[in-house]
Amino acid sequence: MFHYLKRLDWFLFILMLLLLLGGVLAIYSASTTKIGSEFHRVDYYYKQIIWIAIALLLFLGVMRIQYSIIDLLVVPSYILSLLLLVVVLFMPEIKGSHRWISLGLFNIQPSELAKLTTIMFIARVISKPGITDWRILVRTFIIVFIPASLILLEPDLGSAMTFVVIFLVMLASSDLPNYFLIIMLSPIITVITSFISPVVFILYMIILTAILYRTHLSWIIIGINTACNTFIFFITPYIWYGLKTYQRNRILSFIDPSRDPLGAGYQIIQSKIAIGSGKLLGKGFLLGSQKNLNFLPEHHTDFIFSVIGEELGFIGCLLTLILFYLFLYRIAKSITFLKRKELHFISVGILAILTFQIFVNIGMNLGLVPTTGIPLPFISYGGSSLIINVFSVSLILKFLNERSIFD
Question: What predicted TM-score, i.e. pTM, was given to this entire model?
Answer without folding.
Answer: 0.87
